[in-house]
Automatic annotation (TrEMBL):
Keywords: Antiport, Cell membrane, Ion transport, Membrane, Transmembrane, Transmembrane helix, Transport. This is Cation:proton antiporter. The lineage of its organism: Bacteria, Pseudomonadati, Pseudomonadota, Betaproteobacteria, Burkholderiales. It is found in: Cell membrane. Pfam families: Na_H_Exchanger. The keyword Cell membrane applies. Residues 23-346 form the Cation/H+ exchanger transmembrane domain. It is a multi-pass membrane protein. InterPro entries: Cation/H_exchanger_TM (IPR006153), Na+/solute_symporter_sf (IPR038770). Its main location: membrane. Gene3D superfamilies: 1.20.1530.20. The chain crosses the membrane at residues 12-32, 124-144, 156-178, 198-221, 233-262, 282-315, 336-353, 373-390. The keyword rRNA processing does not apply.
Amino acid sequence: MNDELTTPLWLLSPLAVLGAGLMLALVAGMLLQRLRIPKLYGAVLAGLLLGATGAELIDRALLAQFQELLNAAAALVLFEVGRKMDLAWLLRSGRQGGSLLLATFARLVAVALTIRLLGLPWGAAIFIASILIAVNPVIVNSMVADENASGTSTFATANMVGLSSLVALLVLALTMAWTRSQGLDAGTSFGEELMRQGGKLVLGAGIALLSYGLYAAATRLCKVPATLRPGMLLAALLIDLGLCSISSSSALLSLLLMGLLLRNVERRDNVFQAQLKTAQDIGYVLLFLMSAALVDLQGLAQGWTLLGALAVFAVRIGATRLALWPGSAWDRNKKHAMALSMCSLVSYGGLVVDTTLNAYTGLDQASTELMGALLALNVLLAPGLTWLGLRMAGETYRPLGESRKDGVHP
């Protein structure tokens, strides 16, 4: 009886704990924004206070209970990534699109060489480098929305988020096939494992086509008004995510393709940004709160991992800046700004939108510690550097008030 009286009742409810974390993140974010600090740091603060670094109220076990909710938040974010990719521009932009593609491979090579020089095996170096090709959509989209950023470099960065994710998926399929086929307990050859990984991508693409087809057919046959189409779209996204979850197909590719189809195939008026903006903003905070809650600052300060992670982080930014050199549409200052805006990185689980919060366990202990340190630095540094990059480019318009309706054109 005494234990029941002394234990706060809200601590017994995982939903209440997550709700309290979200409330703290939103309140702290608004207060920080008044000080001209990116409000995404409110999620960082809440995650550190309630997660592994602080009270340990939010941990992997608790977050696992809300995996479907987190997947739904990720679906909105990834759909927005695809919706901001302009395929026509990427194909006709010449040096600009080419430099963005070059940057993805430059990061792969530079990060792999750096990790190898740190003494880690080639397999781990290439695997981690494959993940670090991608730019984190939560950080970029959140910073762009908060600062009402719009311009040539912001437009290119938005396309880079989607392009880097697609390239990372393809490269990761190769590295995953190689890693799993070379393991001590491997029961399949490289070719068989490659077919398996490729099959996930193909199945994810098929699910995207099916889900978009359902959305298009339902809205056209029923002549759904524009104001109601966001609800129909949300239903299609949930169908897409659910089918990917039960089939173990590539949810990231599928959701990106849903956004691509809406942006590049749909010819009707686009009313989705305003309708889904609030849900997307909450999704940004919720996903970043999760990332921050899993960060252990005490572990980050131990051993060589912090210095190694800082080196990889810096090399990745430098490789991006070097690859942007051929682009003729941006001046030197904008290229510096873009390199900073593209500094953020994703985790393995975030890249594949896995059905479990557990990280990939095929890495050795030293490689796992390095990846953990990189993700911790990403939570602490990347929002601020991304914000700084947008400000350096001179493309932020926060004083003007609300963001534009679409915000995807330069």
